[in-house]
Amino acid sequence: MIKSNPVIYFEIPVLDMDRAIHFYGSVFDFTLEREILDGYEMAFIYFDSDLEGIAGSLVKGDIYQPTKNGAILYFHTNNINETIERAMQFDIEILYPKTINKQLGYAIAEIGDTEGNRIALKQVITQ
């Protein structure tokens, strides 16, 4: 029996690390730390054990190809409208418009990032 969520880390493929760091840092208001690991250029999104979420990184390298057709990562936001507005400053595409599910208590949307990936936004809403 699994006692916790087994997902602990993610990697987002990027083509231009500077552009991707600027996008993710600006849209989600966090700092990424650059590093070279095993020959790959990476920018880490560290996990704070006092908060919810998992750690991950942006990764540039020969095996990392951005796509809109693979797994979709959901990013929590406190205000989905503001997050979409910040993302739109990067001339991105809205792939699934903001949709509110009152029964389940959330709003979601999907956008393209600057690298060609599909990512999702999720905001918990209260009645």
From TrEMBL:
Recorded hits in SUPFAM superfamilies, A to Z, give:
Glyoxalase/Bleomycin resistance protein/Dihydroxybiphenyl dioxygenase
Instruction: Tell me the protein's name.
Output: VOC family protein
One Pfam family per UniProt? Glyoxalase
Residues in VOC domain copies:
6-124
Say which domain of life the source belongs to. Bacteria
For this protein, the record's Gene3D superfamilies field holds: 2,3-Dihydroxybiphenyl 1,2-Dioxygenase, domain 1
Transmembrane stretches, by residue range? none
